[in-house]
Amino acid sequence: MSVVRPDNAQQGRLLRLLRDDGPRSRAELGDAVELSRSRLAVELERLERLGLVETAGLAASRGGRRSSIVRISKHTRFLGIDIGATSIDVAVTDGELRVLFHEAEPFDIRQGPEVVLGRTLELIGKLRAGDLSPGFVGAGAGVPGPVSFREGVPVSPPIMPGWNHFPVREALAAELGCPVLVDNDVNIMALGEKHSGLAKSVDDFLFVKIGTGIGCGIVVGGEVYRGVSGSAGDIGHIRVDD
Predict the structure, then answer these.
(1) Three-state SS string across 145-191, please?
(2) Which residue, 40, 93, 162, 184, is the most exposed by fewest CB within 10 angstroms?
(3) In 3-state terms, what secondary structure has residue 143?
C-alpha cells in the first residue's frame, strides 16, 4: 500500500492563494495549483486537521457535482510586530491579513533588547486578552536596522545599541509558541506594499522610508533583495555640507 506524503510546498501555495484571494472553490484551487482532485483533497484534509482551513458552503455548479468552498479558518491568527526607533506597534490579523486588534505606544529602542521585547510581549498580552482564538499560527517582526534574515538577528544596527546579534527570533518564538520571522522593518513594509498596496501589480520597485533613519526596501522579481549581510537598502543618514 502506497502512502502519499505531505507536500509542504503545495500546502503553502494553497494557503497563499486563500490568504491573498479569499475563499475559493476546490475546483478553482485545483486549477490554480494544477493538482488532481484526489491529491488536492489529501492536502486540504491535512490543512483542515491542522486547523488552518475550513469548508464554507457550496460553490456554484460548473456543470456537474457542486464543489465546496474552502477558506482559511476563521480562528487563524497572525501577529505583526513593528519595533521602531521610538515606538512599538503590535497587531493581530485574521488569516486574510485583516487587522483585528492593534496596540501602540512610544518606546526608546536604546533601552536594549530585553526591556523592549519585554514591553512588546506585554502589549501582545493585552491583545490576546480580547481574543478567543487558540494561538498564533505565525508572527513577523520588523526592526529598524540590518538583519540576518537566516538567523533572525540584527547585525551591527547603527541606531540599536546592545542589539547586535541578539537572538530576537528565538526569544520571541520561545514566548509566543509559534514560528517567527524577523526582518528589517522597511523590507516588511515593501512586502506589505507588494501584497496589497500600489506595488501589487509590479515585481520590481524600491520602497523608501524616511523617519529616524532612512531605509529602502528593494524588491526584484517579486522578492525582497537583502544583500550578503542584510544591509541592502540601508541608506541611513548621509550628511551633505560645504
Answers:
(1) CCEECCCCEECCCCCCCCCCCCCHHHHHHHHHCCCEEEEEHHHHHHH
(2) 162
(3) strand
pLDDT of residue 44: 93
- Of 182, 181, 208, residue with least CA distance to 193: 208
Percent of the chain scoring above 70 in pLDDT: 92
Q: What is the C-alpha to C-alpha distance for residues 75 and 41, in angstroms, rounded to an integer? A: 21
Residue 8 to residues 14, 143, 218, Cα–Cα distance (Å): 10, 29, 28
What is the pLDDT at residue 43? 92
pTM metric for this prediction: 0.86
Burial 129-165 (b: 16+ CB within 10 A, else e): eeeebeebbebbbbbbbbbbbeebbbbebebbeebee
Listed residue (104, 105, 107, 84) closest to 92, CA to CA: 104
Tell me the sheet residues that pair with 87: 106
- Rg, C-alpha atoms of the chain: 20
Q: What is the pLDDT of residue 63?
A: 62
**Distance separating alpha carbons of residues 225 and 233, to the nearest angstrom:** 9
